[in-house]
């Protein structure tokens, strides 16, 4: 859905709202009716309440991988054979905008730093990624972990 409500009126809009609000049957809409293979989502206010919940759910429960992240948007792709190359080259397994860097275990900090640096190559002007990287660096330094 891209904001052109007149194009999506009726069933498409209702289905979209069911998915984003995780209403009864939302998984069938994603998997069966639409066969959604990726999500491009705004994850910041004002729709973050719904968008963040669905993003976390599909990453944790539906096999979607985060492959892009900047100040406003994320891209999640379904972990299926046709997306293997994208996932191999672009997925983030440790960092994401919904995971507080303080909750990353010390043994994962070096990989988290590698991931955030890779993310910053793709979105170099992202303030969210700069903040995330800064916090990871401080945590690594406090814990005596070399970058």
How are the SSEs placed, and which strands pair?
Elements: H1 5-8, H2 11-20, H3 26-33, E1 38-42, H4 48-61, E2 64-69, E3 73-78, H5 84-90, H6 109-122, H7 127-142
Antiparallel strand pairs: 1-3, 2-3
Helix pairs in contact: 2-3, 6-7
What does this protein structure show overall?
The chain has helices at 5-8, 11-20, 26-33, 48-61, 84-90, 109-122, 127-142; strands spanning 38-42, 64-69, 73-78. With 147 residues, it is mainly alpha-helical. It has one domain (37-142). It has a three-stranded antiparallel beta sheet, with helices on both faces. α2 (11-20) packs across α3.
Summarize this entry quickly:
By secondary structure, the protein is mainly alpha-helical.
